[in-house]
Amino acid sequence: MGAGSPAVAAALLLVSAALVGVAFGGDIVHQDDDAPKIPGCSNDFMLVKVQTWVSSRETDEFVGVGARFGPIIESKEKHANRTGLLLADPFDCCAPLKEKVAGEVLLVQRGDCKFTTKAKNAEAAGASAIIIMNNLHELYKMVCDQNETELHINIPAVLLPKDAGTILQGLLVLGKVSVQLYSPDRPLVDTAEVFLWLMAVGTILGASYWSAWSAREAVIEEEKLLKDGHESSLNIQTGGSSGMVDITMTSAMLFIVVASLFLVMLYKLMSHWFVELLVVIFCIGGVEGLQTCLVALLSRWFKPAAGSFVKVPFFGAVSYLTLAVCPFCIVFAVLWAVYRRMPYAWIGQDVLGIALIVTVIQIVRIPNLKVGSVLLGCSFLYDIFWVFISKMLFHESVMIVVARGDKTDEDGVPMLLKIPRMFDPWGGYSIIGFGDILLPGLLVAFALRYDWAAKKTLQSGYFLWSMVAYGSGLLITYVALNLMDGHGQPALLYIVPFTLGTFISLGKKRGELGNLWTKGQPPRVCTHTQHPPKDADSAVNLS
Q1: What is the pTM for the complete model shown?
Q2: Which of 383, 411, 424, 451 is catalytic?
């Protein structure tokens, strides 16, 4: 709010960068090379839907995980059989069943024996499938031992978490229970990914134009001061009273180091209370971003309110328009925080997130291509390390664990843009980290500021091609995401080479790379310098 904007923007840029490189839609197929694969036990692990009916009336649907062994579970709901459900006797199915069954599905307890032993006993009794209740709330992978060779299990096995298994067992008391097991495939392309792509590209487009417009107004004001002869006013720098922050080489390198430390802190301290703290931080940034965007937009129509100021303790001079808009922004953020678990809360999260990203791109600036290359280059390595290489040190991808909000009851941390997968039978969200928009956006905004300062056309400039490169890189990210069955991808792995590579290649081809690299501004000729007359020069020389 006013004077504090640059500091808030810099702090929130750091928080956003901690989740710089994650884009995923949630995987249903998991290829695990650590779990042994032997003949008869080589299935990929996949999620399975368990639809239930009680006395021919449809009731609950549960989600479990299929076993490494047994046949592949049907993917089409219309082809999956609806079969009666019975309790196994003995309940753990670790010994041969006391009675034969006629093709029903057996519900069994986890017990102490092998999963394959349960499946063999159920198959020998005539069961068509087996559903195993886990003794914990988590899902385990049902694998085979290395010494189990040539397995011939011909019925599917599904493991349910403890709470789902308990509910399913309770349904048997209410009447005759039937179940249907199937594992639907995700659509090749979901509309959520299309809208998320449009959202990311549109955010950078709007933020870049706002940044370039602000820079142009600052230059016009400076030229006006020069024309009026107010040389003393030349000390008004971009990072001064205009409230802009230029990234330096040192801050670009330290930024990634500090972001890494912050990410590890998130990973280690991830819990319900810590997510609540992140929600508060996000709301503060969202309020700042939303009121900045609204004030900038409304000031075109409410110029008197935007130009009149009142002194507020702790905030300094604040316009009346800001005072009018701020309560709405606070209420909006608080309502989102309170109802963030509701189905449509993602809309509020995206509104606050986009406003925050646009505001940061408008306030924080890359002064030249050299700083931009260092910032994006470090982010590129940071992204790859914390998505892929961190598995070697922490036995799981730190970036993805933090983004998903594992170890909490949340759908993920709030520093993400998300859209529900509306046509996906598994539901869930497609998401993208703030940093995957914000960091490349800083470079694209720099390109547009340079184009306007150099009076370049759209085709002869760098902005259009930077936008095309960013959109292409993000598109490749989603292609890779689908090819990898929804496994989280480091988006900057694809975005940085496209965006930065295009910018540098164009600059080199046009012979402007040196100027872009060091100065970041086109050569400017000062039209207000007063040259003394020739006669005066002669008189000075004669004297």
Answers
A1: 0.81
A2: 383
